[in-house]
Design brief:
The protein is an alpha/beta fold and 279 residues long. It is built from 8 helices and 8 strands; from the N terminus they run αββαβααβαβαββαβα. It has an 8-stranded mixed sheet with strand order 2-1-3-4-6-5-8-7, with helices on both faces. α5 runs antiparallel to α7. The longest helix has 15 residues, at 30-44.
């Protein structure tokens, strides 16, 4: 994508929005993610009938309802399984998957690591606010171990949080980026790059939850862009990720890897299958 983040004149972001108004809390970072996503789709001029957006459960997973695309609001943690199945059946579609840190890295964690290693041509938007917002503020897999503002973990979790970028890299994702919802232009650029990348793209979005994590409003003062280009060296990417404070944004890792596609079996009919069992 060029340095100009504005969509092309032929298609406007509103073209991809539905008439349903989001019910997120005021100040939620997910509003900006929705805006960046529709701007990215407009910049790419993707046909709505050739684009699908799937999700699981959680605040972030409401996003398909707010877009005028083919979509599916699945069950908890199964968004990537649904996206994988759709891409396998309809490889010509642009398939986007969205979810949160709880949906994607807790109950959906196994699907996440296998989606990374499979490297199908999918784009996964992981909105990370380090809390289960829809179910009243429990700690999530990315919550700091000392966060003690949840009634379920009043003394903190005392467990090390997942580092989504490190997990994606170790599992085999070929495109890994981190964005911030408070930088919509930057988010738009990252999503365009991710969608254009052939292979499994993970975009972790730091998306504050003002209701249960009001201290995250201060993220806007802590965010800083990477001062280097994306690398295709997994060892170098791992070094950067583990030396990072979690607040850098930009493309971390981008590599060319074989894109997995299912073997297309010859189509048949039920009658033909039944004939195989006739003595």
């Amino acid at each position: 994508m060029s340095e100009h983040s504005q969509p092309k004149a032929a298609v406007k972001p509103a073209f991809y929005k539905s008439g349903i108004k989001p019910v997120w809390c005021p100040g939620c970072g997910h509003f900006a993610v929705l805006s960046a996503l529709t701007k990215a789709l407009a910049w790419l001029e993707l046909p709505r009938e050739q684009t699908a957006l799937l999700s699981g459960i959680g605040c972030s997973s409401r996003i398909p309802a707010y877009t005028d695309l083919y979509g599916f609001h699945g069950i908890h943690g199964r968004a990537l399984a649904l996206g994988t199945g759709l891409k396998a059946a309809r490889p010509e579609l642009t398939v986007l998957v969205a979810g949160g840190d709880g949906d994607g890295l807790s109950i959906g964690g196994n699907h996440f690591i296998h989606a990374c290693r499979r490297n199908m041509d999918l784009t996964y938007i992981l909105m990370d606010n380090q809390v289960y917002g829809m179910t009243k503020g429990q700690a999530s897999p990315t919550t700091d171990p000392n966060w003690d503002h949840s009634k379920l973990t009043p003394h903190g979790t005392h467990m090390q949080p997942f580092q989504p970028a490190a997990l994606a890299l170790a599992a085999g994702a070929s495109f890994i980026a981190r964005g911030f919802s408070g930088d919509p232009a930057g988010m738009t650029r990252l999503l365009v790059e991710a969608i254009q990348h052939p292979g499994f793209s993970v975009v972790q979005v730091l998306s504050p939850c003002p209701t249960f994590r009001p201290e995250q409003k201060g993220w806007k003062h802590s965010i800083h862009a990477w001062d280097w280009e994306a690398t295709d060296d997994a060892v170098e990417a791992a070094r950067r990720i583990h030396a990072d404070d979690g607040m850098h944004t930009g493309i971390i890792f981008r590599a060319e890897r074989p894109v997995w596609q299912p073997v297309r079996c010859q189509q048949t009919t039920v009658e033909a299958i039944e004939q195989e069992f006739v003595p």
